[in-house]
């Protein structure tokens, strides 16, 4: 194949120019290197753009430790369970199951004294029985139950006015009034009290006995420990009620109100005597000290002196009706109160808006009263004693 003259000339020129071109490249290489050194950013850009295949650099851990102190770890305290208190006396309960409230209608006739079981009662209420000049006690136990309590008598309608404050309470009586308008059993239903022990009407009449050291009707007793066993899980259905407000730091002193006298009838005068060393009051019936007779009711050496840490004197209107002049007191609304607490005397007011609520005790400024932990005696007396005493 013939090569044209033009092609031959071009090839000749290429042979001449190629060596010259290679020589020029070798002479300009240092200048290019210098330019590269003067523009390092282009190199860094290139390095970051190309993944490295070199082994990763291991950080140096041989540095000296910091001189700063390491903070102590935060300690989170363990959660503590809520402390439960007996709402009747302010003592600590091991569990809710330890609160098993019972109420017992206790005879207060002179032939029935000294009674048994009073030293274990948290609250004792005293009320007029009838217009014949006698009172009866309603003893309320929160959980420290006596294995002998009495002498026990019949329940009355105004006893239920007191018991309706305590949801889930169990009631122990020897019969009860059933007269129209004064029916104890009907009133228990209104108060929603669901467990009782009754020596006359039943149920649980087998839990009672009579002590031969006294004559009827001043000799009927019961064992509340056995009653609690029979009641079973009755108490578990109810929450702990709110009742008194207690203050562990109330000061004790012998001051106004250290001693106090209350006349129920002309021939029945009560005296409270404060003992600072005991932190409470002895109670006297016509100069006879109130004691717990214990199980051996004929043995004075078995007697236990009973100290009351708080005394409440509630004033209310009483009415009487029925063939036996059954007593009843106004139990809603409000009325005057007197308080004996740790050797001090003060006045205030009791209030209760409606049935089945607790009585609330207020001081003279209208604040809820604070009581000493321990036992409380509540006297519910006639609001106008001078009128009542004029009839006696």
Structure report:
It is built from six helices and 24 strands. The chain has 392 residues and is an alpha+beta fold. It has a single domain (84-389), classed as YerB-like fold (3-Layer(bba) Sandwich). A hairpin with a 7-residue loop joins strand 21 and strand 22. Helix 3 (157-163) runs parallel beside helix 4 (184-190). The protein is globular. The N and C termini lie far apart (164 Å).
The number of helical segments is: 6
Radius of gyration: 46 Å
Which architecture does the CATH hierarchy give at level 2? 3-Layer(bba) Sandwich
Q: Please indicate the percent range of residues in DSSP E strands (runs of 2 or more).
A: 25-35%
- Main sheet summary: 10 strands, mixed
Low-confidence stretches: 18-59, 386-392
What is the share of helical residues? 10-25%
Label the overall shape: globular
Q: Please state the average pLDDT score.
A: 80
Structural class: alpha+beta
CATH names the topology as YerB-like fold
**How many structural domains can be distinguished in the coordinates?**
1
Question: In the CATH hierarchy, what is the superfamily?
Answer: YerB-like
Helix-strand pattern: HHEEEEEHEHEEEHEEEEEEEEEEEEEEEH
How are the strands of the biggest sheet laid out side by side?
7-6-3-5-4-24-17-20-21-22
| Ends distance | 164 Å
Counted beta strands: 24
The top level CATH class name: Alpha Beta
Helices and strands in order:
Layout: H1 5-38, H2 40-49, E1 84-85, E2 92-93, E3 102-107, E4 123-128, E5 135-141, H3 157-163, E6 170-173, H4 184-190, E7 195-198, E8 208-210, E9 220-222, H5 224-231, E10 245-246, E11 259-265, E12 268-275, E13 280-285, E14 288-289, E15 291-292, E16 304-305, E17 310-316, E18 318-321, E19 326-329, E20 333-341, E21 344-352, E22 360-363, E23 370-371, E24 376-382, H6 385-389
């Amino acid at each position: 194949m013939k090569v044209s003259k033009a092609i031959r000339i071009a090839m000749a020129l290429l042979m001449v120019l190629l060596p010259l071109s290679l020589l020029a490249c070798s002479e300009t290489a240092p200048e290019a290197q210098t330019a590269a050194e003067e523009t390092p950013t282009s190199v860094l850009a290139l390095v970051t753009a190309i993944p490295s295949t070199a082994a990763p650099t291991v950080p140096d851990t041989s540095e000296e430790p910091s001189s700063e102190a390491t903070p102590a770890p935060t300690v989170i305290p363990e959660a503590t369970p809520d402390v439960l208190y007996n709402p009747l006396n302010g003592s600590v309960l091991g569990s809710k199951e330890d609160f098993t409230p019972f109420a017992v209608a206790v005879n207060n006739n002179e032939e029935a004294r000294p009674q048994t079981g009073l030293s274990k009662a948290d609250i004792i209420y005293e009320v007029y029985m009838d217009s014949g000049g006698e009172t009866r006690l309603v003893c309320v136990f929160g959980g420290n139950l006596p294995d002998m309590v009495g002498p026990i008598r019949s329940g009355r309608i105004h006893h239920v006015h007191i018991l309706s404050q305590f949801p889930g309470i169990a009631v122990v009586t020897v019969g009860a009034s059933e007269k129209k308008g004064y029916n104890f059993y009907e009133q228990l239903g209104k108060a929603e009290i669901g467990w009782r022990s009754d020596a006359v009407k039943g149920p649980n009449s087998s839990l009672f006995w009579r002590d031969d050291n006294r004559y009827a009707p001043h000799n009927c007793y019961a064992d509340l420990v056995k009653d609690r066993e029979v009641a079973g899980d009755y108490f578990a259905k109810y929450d702990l009620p709110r009742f008194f407000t207690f203050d562990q730091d109330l000061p004790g002193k012998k001051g106004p109100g250290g001693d106090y006298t209350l006349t129920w009838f002309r021939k029945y005068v009560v005296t409270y005597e404060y003992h600072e060393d005991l932190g409470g009051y002895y109670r006297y019936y016509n100069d006879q000290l109130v004691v717990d007779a214990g199980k051996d009711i004929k043995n004075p050496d078995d007697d236990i002196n009973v100290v009351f840490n708080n005394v409440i004197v509630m004033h209310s209107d009483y009415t009487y009706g029925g063939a036996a002049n059954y007593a009843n007191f106004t139990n809603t609304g409000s009325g005057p109160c007197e308080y004996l607490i740790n050797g001090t005397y003060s006045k205030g007011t009791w209030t209760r808006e409606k049935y089945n609520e607790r009585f609330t005790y207020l001081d003279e400024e209208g604040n809820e009263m604070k009581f000493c932990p321990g036992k409380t005696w509540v006297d519910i007396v006639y609001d106008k004693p001078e009128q009542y005493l004029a009839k006696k």
